[in-house]
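Thread: Modeling a multi-component assembly for a lab meeting

Hi all, long-time lurker, first post. My supervisor asked me to bring a structural picture of a complex we are working on to next week's group meeting, and I have zero experience with this. I have the sequence lines for every component (575 residues in total). Could someone generate the structure of the whole assembly? Inputs are pasted exactly as I received them:
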Amino acid sequence: MEIIKKEEIEKLAGLARVSLSKEELESFQEEIDSILAYVKQVQEVTSDSESESDKPKGVFSLLKNNMREDEEPHEGGQFSEDILNEAPKKEGNYFKVKKIL
Amino acid sequence: MKIDLKDLTIKKAHYHLSSGDFSVLELTESYLKNIEEKNSEINAFLEVFDDCKKQAQDAQKLFSEKKATLLTGIPFSVKDNILIKGRIASAASKMLENYKATYDATVISKLKKQGVVFLGRTNMDEFALGGSTEKSAFGVTRNPHDISRVPGGTSGGSAATVASNMALVALGSDTGGSVRQPSSFCGCVGLKPTYGAVSRYGLIAAVSSFDQIGPISKSVGDAEIIFESVSGRDPMDSTTISQDTHGQHKNTNVIGIPKRLVEQKGLNENVVSCFKATIEKINKMGFSIKEIDLPNMSQSLAAYYILNFAEVSSNLARYDGVKFGFHKDGKDLFEDYLLTRREGLGKEVRKRILLGTHVLSTGYYDAYYNKAVALKNSLTIKFKEALKDVDAVLTPTAPTPPYKIGGKSNDPIEMYLADIFTVTANITGVPAISIPAGTAHVEGKDLPIGMQFMSAHGNENLLFKLGKKFLGEE
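Re: Modeling a multi-component assembly
Sure thing. I ran the full set together rather than chain by chain. Output:
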């Protein structure tokens, strides 16, 4: 039985803003289905890995937040030209896109 | 003097450069000559920089001013996902084919200060997603040991440049084995440092929870020198750690071997015999061997891929054809996005974006993503525990020697299974090194086989010590 249908792949493609050709839709459905069938085995892991010691706090105790002060900003516009030079379309100091509304 | 590139190491090169046996320019030119002869066949470099000679002259100045360090004048190749200001960094994608980096990665600025020579940027699987360098938008790289075979991946170009003496050493990046596996396939040494040991500022992000930059070289000593030079805390990458973050491991002189590892499905017989010979060798080196329980590797691999897909789909959302990179015009903004990402991103990349979008979507998030995170956490805790009693855990780096180009590209699961031994170090964040340990004689060619040692967090020094002893260095 298939885990994921073609219609679902099409919906995902829209959400992720990637369009697929007709042939790709066919092959992607098959490949994604077999990959999901493989990775689905994480669902078999139940009591063991969800025991008390493995709840997120177990690992979060290994991690700590690493903050820095909001200070010493660089001079405004210092990088604008370099960055804008990489833009496909620009106008003055802006990236240019098509009308949204 | 004639420069013997084959046996050259950083220390040897430094000795000869310091004593004036040859100049940085002569050294650089020897590599450029090799590149000219070999690169058209191997396709390891996507671009050879046109200012290598100028870089060499600048490095030579450091020698005459007595400011040279071990890395001054050392010719590096750099994976195409590490930014060097003003140069193209394409991640082997059409999306970034003409993208010029606007700043230096931290590893690059550290190396620039020491006056290394950057020869060029190397081929890889697009956005570091793959395992053979076959998923590059700019053609496959060929294995220098047998050009009908893959060099491994995703840092296949970097490993191939070192293996074919087109660079003395290289930088790669490792998300699930991408430094270690090509090193195994090409007969090189490859290090995946502890998560956070090396800054990722300026590395094009694939899977931020796993990505690490690592060296590829011919000797463990070279990998160590590069690691020492590029590691350390960086205010530009908040995940970086310092040397005392994890604490030093107590020496045990014991090497751990996962129980029943040789029964792993799909394990090549040459790899099995090399693994057994390695156990014997380290035993003779004075280490005792202890069998340890490794958590289910198949489940670890499944968890790894779910997290890989999820983070790839988020990280690659930035390629929208608006801010930088490739743009394809459509009838409206929505269609601009669709066309830009369809033409700019390769098949494997788009497939992973869809998979990531799926495992993160409502209704599936708990069934996939959350389960994978729980598995990652429990695996990390168990592995830390297992590593307490041993100096390192030994496994093969890859289940097979290098395979034929096109040999695995039709079956995604088979391709992903090639990462079975390497992903554990990425999921748990521990350091791991691949070391050449033998060869498989196939069709008249000697194909390299690498073995992997994994150590406790922050204990790269143990891997270097072990590796140097294993290869008989120093």
